C-alpha cells in the first residue's frame, strides 16, 4: 500500500484539478450541465482513482486504477480539444492544459514501470 498524498502523480493530478476548474469557470453558463460538468467529472476522477488504487490489496489492482486515471486523462484531453474547437478557451490555455495532461500521462506510465512508446 502507498500513501497516496505522498505520490507525485497524485499531487500533480490535484494541481490539474485546480487548473481545470479555474479554466471552466469561464465557460458559457449554458454549458454548466454539459461540457463543464463532463470536464470537471473527468478531472476529479484522476486523483480519485490514484487514491482509490492505493487502498487496494495488490499492485495489480493498483495498476488497474492507474489505468482508469490514464483513461480519464485521455477523456479530459478530448474534452479540452472540443472546448478549444468551440472557442471556450484561448489557444494559450489550450496548449498549457494539453501539455499538463500529457506530462501527467507520462508520469503515471513511468510510475507503472511501463515504457512510453
UniProtKB/TrEMBL annotation:
Organism: Gaoshiqia sediminis
CDD domains on file: 23S_rRNA_IVP_like
Pfam families to which the protein is assigned, alphabetical: 23S_rRNA_IVP
NCBIfam families linked to this entry: four helix bundle protein, PRK12275.1-2
This protein's name: Four helix bundle protein
InterPro entries (alphabetical): 23S_rRNA-intervening_sequence, 23S_rRNA_IVS_sf
